[in-house]
Amino acid sequence: MSVASFMGMKAENRKIVMVTSYDYPTAAIADAVGVDSILVGDSYGMVILGYENTIPVTVEELLPVCRAVRRGATHPLLIGDMPFMSFQVSPEEAVRTAGRFVKEGGVEAVKIEGGSEASKTVQSISRIGIPVLGHIGVTPQTATLHGGYRIQGRNADSRDKLVADAKSLEEAGVFGIVLEMITEEVARVITETVSVPTIGIGSGRFCDGQVLVLHDIIGLYPNFAPKFAKRYTDVAAMIRQALQNFAADVRNGVFPEEQHVFRMEEDRRAKLDSKRKI
Q1: Angle in degrees, CA 80, 81, 86, rounded to 5
Q2: Please, which residues bridge with residue 182 across strands?
Q3: Are residues 33 and 155 part of one domain?
Q4: I need a labelling partner for 187 at 20 to 30 A (CA). Which of 160, 167, 220, 255 fits?
Q5: Mean pLDDT over all residues of the chain?
Q6: What is the pTM of this model?
């Protein structure tokens, strides 16, 4: 999946499937399923590292994750999420950081939070050939600093600001825009206004694609379940049951069983078999 192919899906009226991934095994599964794009989100800090929010996440923490996901997934468009204060200081620093994500992380694009205020940064990164995915609506890196997560687009002023932000990002050169927790009506207006794909998360049915955190999809994040996330299975319950069974087997002397142990005679026979083959 190239950036051009990703953008072309909007014109072809084909819905875009994007998920997060933070490791090799889940990336390999997502690749086999055929998702269109994988985002290595700064939500890694909350979901995997247990941070309270995404603010503490660093570039150094995300780059190894990007590399692991890249090793697991070769088909989807891989996007690295630039964390808080990795691009806000100056366009020059943002370009250097984006370059690290591509060069050291193996991603094909980066994601930046922010509307019109981020346009100059987006333009600087895009000009050197690194594709940028925009992100407006609820932007988690700053939402926690402004009193929490609040639905965007509830009134005319908010609608006009969001549409203006989307247009500004489009003009700056983004290849797509994530719309997070925006009212369905406004998300539809934005989707119909801009020429680049919109990827919704909690923004209704009319976006060009959808993204969810993989751990929300499979029920592996115990802290909370967002209203907009659909849980397709409960992996946490499966893991809990498996561990309970393991602990019971160990304590009752049931595990390991005969088929789980090695014997000296078996080891000698294996060596003899090896010599015979030679």
Answers
A1: 115
A2: 152
A3: yes
A4: 220
A5: 94
A6: 0.92
